[in-house]
Structures are given as C-alpha cells and as structure tokens.
C-alpha cells in the first residue's frame, strides 16, 4: 500500500523504474561501502541500493513511513533506520562510530530544505566519499554555475570550494508521486582532497560570501563596506568595482583571508 505524501515534509515519491535504475547505476554501490540515504520515503532507492550493497543506513523523519520500509527491506539486506532530522545528524560521528573512513550519501532531498542539507553535508565533507542527490533542477544549475552566470551565487561558491559538482541527468515531474511543479535533476558531489581545500577561516569566508551576494547588484566596495574597504579588496587582487557574480571561488578565499588579517 502506497503512503500518502505529506506536504509538510515536501514528499514526492520517485516511482519510475527507469530513473531509479539510472540513479543506482550512477551511485554504483559496493558491498564494502557504508551507504547513507537521506529521506528514503517508500524505499524506491533504498531497496535497489540495499540489494547491491547488502547494508544501508537510512535517515527518516516521518515515523509513519518507517514500519513499511523495515518490512519491505526485511528480506533484502541489513537496513538500519535513524529516526531524526538530517540537519541534526553528525555524519562525522556516524562514520567514526562504525569504523569507516568515509560515508557514501544519497537521497531524494526535500526541495524546500535542500540548501541547508547541502551546507550541512559540506560541514562533514572530510567524512564523506561522495554524494548523489536528486534536487530541483534549478538548484543543481546554481550548484554548478560558473562566474558570470545569472544563477551563480553563494551556493555555487561554497559548494565548489568544498566539492567537485557534476550534474548527471534530469528527471521529469511524472517520475514522482505526486508530480512536483518543477523539473528535477541528479547531481554528484565529490569532496575535494585535503590538498585542494582552501585555507581561509570558515567563518570569515561565510561572512564575505554572504555579504557579497546579499547585495549582488552593488559593487564589492559597497557590498563589503562593513567588512573590507577598497584598499583591502585590492590587496586581495580583486577590483573593488567588480560585482560578486564575476568573481571566481578563489577570489572569495583571498578576500576572506584579508578580512581575517586586515
């Protein structure tokens, strides 16, 4: 029996087998992997992933879905369900408690809180091998956007400084129950190795990027006036008359380091 999707949880259950198979193939789980699924729902991805990997940990907030999911998985593999808000799950601690170096994370993310979930995962990127997410297509476009693009912004910068972003394929509304009003897409995130990560203080980077894009139509000299003056911006080898949308992620790193050491 199919569950009734709840608007309060932003539930849209994937049911089209063609796209389910494509997602599982993109993830390509192995028996030695520790796979974590965010928001398993009715188990459309859970069961195929479990069948290949043999074990899987799922994070589900909706208690009504858990008994059915456990029943369907009983003969497929070892399923462990964490009843929790994913934003409160410590992925680093989860990996450590199970004695694995890194997790593989997947999920059809609720679109209304997709950005907070992405930022939360990035905070634990050192404990994550890769991530495969279904998201609103517009969000995936923002994640992968290059400087100069109309959709390039805070999400683009912060994710690209932590991960390689690889859009994989689109998924139409009719692949879900009920169909969402937007197009969806699957994206792969590969956390950068330690030697490729920036060395700016995270709190300074967040402050600079937030301020810069908070007033994206203004020049950096105006948008960052509470943080950096024009001379400080020049010391970061950035034009104070430029706008945030024209800067590469590395430019924001230099600005953040100047902000931390005026």
Automatic annotation (TrEMBL):
EC number annotated for this UniProt entry: 2.1.1.182
Stored Pfam families: RrnaAD
Catalytic activity from the UniProt record: adenosine(1518)/adenosine(1519) in 16S rRNA + 4 S-adenosyl-L-methionine = N(6)-dimethyladenosine(1518)/N(6)-dimethyladenosine(1519) in 16S rRNA + 4 S-adenosyl-L-homocysteine + 4 H(+)
MF annotations from Gene Ontology: 16S rRNA (adenine(1518)-N(6)/adenine(1519)-N(6))-dimethyltransferase activity; RNA binding
Domain of life assignment: Bacteria
Major localization listed first in the record, in broad terms: cytoplasm
Subcellular location: Cytoplasm
Keyword Methyltransferase among record annotations: yes
Keyword flag Methyltransferase: yes
Key words, A-Z: Cytoplasm, Methyltransferase, RNA-binding, rRNA processing, S-adenosyl-L-methionine, Transferase
Residues of the Ribosomal RNA adenine methylase transferase N-terminal domain: 19-193
Job of this protein: Specifically dimethylates two adjacent adenosines (A1518 and A1519) in the loop of a conserved hairpin near the 3'-end of 16S rRNA in the 30S particle. May play a critical role in biogenesis of 30S subunits.
HAMAP family registered for this protein in UniProt: 16SrRNA_methyltr_A
Family: Belongs to the class I-like SAM-binding methyltransferase superfamily. rRNA adenine N(6)-methyltransferase family. RsmA subfamily.
The name this protein goes by in its record: Ribosomal RNA small subunit methyltransferase A
């Amino acid at each position: 029996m199919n569950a009734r999707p709840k608007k309060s949880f932003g539930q849209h259950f994937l049911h089209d087998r063609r796209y389910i198979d494509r997602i599982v193939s993109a993830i390509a789980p192995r028996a030695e992997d520790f796979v974590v699924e965010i928001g398993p729902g009715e188990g459309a991805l859970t069961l195929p992933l479990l069948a290949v990997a043999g074990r899987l940990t799922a994070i589900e907030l909706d208690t009504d879905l858990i008994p059915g999911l456990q029943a369907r998985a009983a003969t497929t593999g070892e399923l462990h369900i964490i009843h929790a808000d994913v934003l409160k799950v410590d992925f680093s601690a989860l990996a450590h408690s199970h004695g694995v170096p890194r997790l593989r994370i997947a999920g059809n993310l609720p679109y209304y809180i997709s950005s907070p979930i992405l930022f939360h995962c990035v905070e634990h990127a050192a404990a994550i091998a890769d991530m495969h997410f279904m998201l609103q297509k517009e969000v995936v476009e923002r994640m992968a956007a290059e400087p100069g693009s109309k959709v390039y912004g805070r999400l683009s910068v912060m994710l690209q400084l932590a991960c390689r972003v690889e859009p994989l394929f689109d998924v139409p509304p009719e692949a879900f129950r009920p169909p969402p009003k937007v197009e969806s897409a699957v994206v792969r995130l590969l956390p950068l190795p330690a030697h490729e990560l920036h060395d700016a203080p995270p709190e300074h980077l967040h402050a600079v990027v937030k301020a810069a894009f908070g007033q994206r139509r203004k020049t950096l000299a105006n948008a960052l006036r509470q943080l950096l003056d024009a001379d400080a911006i020049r010391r970061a080898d950035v034009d104070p008359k430029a706008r945030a949308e024209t800067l590469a992620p590395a430019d924001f790193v230099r600005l953040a380091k100047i902000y931390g050491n005026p």
